[in-house]
Design goal:
The protein is built from 8 helices and 8 strands; from the N terminus they run βββααβααβαβααββα. With 261 residues, it is of the alpha/beta class. It has a domain of 180 residues: Undecaprenyl pyrophosphate synthetase (3-Layer(aba) Sandwich), CATH 3.40.1180.10. It has a 6-stranded parallel sheet, sandwiched between helices. A two-stranded parallel sheet has the order 1-2. The longest helix is centred in the first third of the chain and has 22 residues. The relative contact order is 0.18. Bound molecules: farnesyl diphosphate.
C-alpha cells in the first residue's frame, strides 16, 4: 500500500501523520505552508443563516479553531496564526465583546490539554494588556505550560492590529535612537522586522480568509508582503478539515517568485 495515500497525506518519511477523520484526497507534505495565517470571518452571518444569535456562530467558530489547529499540528505545519480579536473589534456591542472574552477564556482552559497533548507551543500577539486579568492569566498559564513543546506554534492574534504593531515597533526603535543606543541609519528593514511582536516568527506563506470578503482587515500588514492568499465563501464555522485540505491543495500549486522571475 502507498503509505503516502494513507489518511490522505503524501509523506516524505515513512510514518503517516495521525490526522483524525474521514480519508481525504492525498496532500503533498513537501508543499505545505510553513506558516499558515487565518482571518476567521463569517461567524455572525453563519449564525444568522441558521436563525441563531451571533454568539452561536462564535461558539461553532471555536469548534473550527479546535479542528483546524489539531489538523495543522498533525500534518506538521510549523506555525498557525489565528486572528481571534482585532483592535477594531472593540467597536462591537458590549455583550458580544463580553461573550468573546468569555469564550476565549473557556477555550484557553478547556483546550489546554489538547494543546499539550498535540505538542503545540502556544503564544499570542497584540496589545495583550487590554484583554483583562482573567484572560491574561489563563493565556500565561497555557503559554508557560506549553513553552517547551517542540511541535507546531499556535499563535492567537488578540487585540491585534497590523498598523498598531508597526507603530509599536517604530516607537521601540525611535526610543533606542533617542537614547543613543541606535543610529538613525540603522532603522532599516531588518531592525523593523526585529521589533515586531514575535521577531522569531517567519512571515506567513499562506493566508486563508473565510466569509468571502476580499480584504486584509489590518491583519499582519508588515508580514503579508509576499504571502499567498486563499479566500473562501464558506463561513468560519463551516471551515473544518476538508476545507483546510482544499486550501492546502491549492497552495501546493502556487509558483512563488517573491518579485523575481
Ligand atoms: C469574525 O466573524 C470573527 C470574530 C470577530 C471572532 C473570532 C472568534 C472565533 C472564531 C471564536 C473564538 C476563538 C477562539 C480562539 C476561542 P464575524 O463576527 O465578524 O462574522 P460576520 O462578518 O459574519 O459578522
Amino acid at each position: 500500500m502507498d503509505l503516502g495515500v494513507l489518511r490522505g497525506v503524501r509523506l516524505m518519511g515513512s510514518k503517516p501523520p495521525e490526522t483524525k477523520g474521514a480519508a481525504l484526497p492525498p496532500l503533498d507534505a513537501t508543499k505545505f505552508p510553513g506558516h499558515l495565517a487565518v482571518i476567521m470571518d463569517g461567524n455572525g452571518r453563519w449564525a444568522q443563516a441558521h436563525g441563531l444569535p451571533r454568539i452561536k456562530g462564535h461558539e461553532e467558530g471555536a469548534r473550527s479553531v479546535r479542528e483546524v489547529t489539531e489538523e495543522c499540528a498533525a500534518l506538521g505545519l510549523g506555525r498557525l496564526t489565528l486572528y481571534a480579536f482585532s483592535s477594531e473589534n472593540w467597536k462591537r456591542p458590549k455583550n458580544e465583546i463580553d461573550f468573546l472574552m468569555k469564550l476565549l477564556r473557556r477555550y484557553l482552559v478547556n483546550e489546554r490539554r489538547t494543546i499539550l497533548e498535540n505538542n503545540i507551543r502556544f503564544t499570542a500577539i497584540g496589545r495583550l494588556e487590554a484583554l483583562g486579568p482573567a484572560v491574561l492569566a489563563e493565556m500565561e498559564k497555557t503559554r508557560e505550560l506549553s513553552r517547551r513543546n517542540t511541535g507546531m506554534v499556535m499563535c492567537l492574534a488578540l487585540n491585534y492590529g497590523g498598523r498598531q504593531e508597526i507603530v509599536d515597533a517604530a516607537q521601540r526603535l525611535a526610543r533606542e535612537v533617542a537614547e543613543g543606543k541606535r543610529a538613525w541609519s540603522a532603522v532599516d528593514e531588518a531592525a523593523l522586522d526585529g521589533a515586531m511582536y514575535d521577531p522569531a516568527a517567519p512571515p506567513p506563506d499562506l493566508l486563508i480568509r473565510t466569509g468571502g470578503d476580499q480584504r486584509i482587515s489590518n491583519f499582519l500588514l508588515w508580514h503579508l508582503a509576499y504571502t499567498e492568499l486563499w479566500i473562501t465563501q464558506k463561513a468560519w464555522p463551516d471551515f473544518k478539515r476538508p476545507e483546510l485540505h482544499e486550501a492546502l491543495r491549492d497552495y501546493a500549486t502556487r509558483a512563488r517568485r517573491f518579485g523575481g522571475l
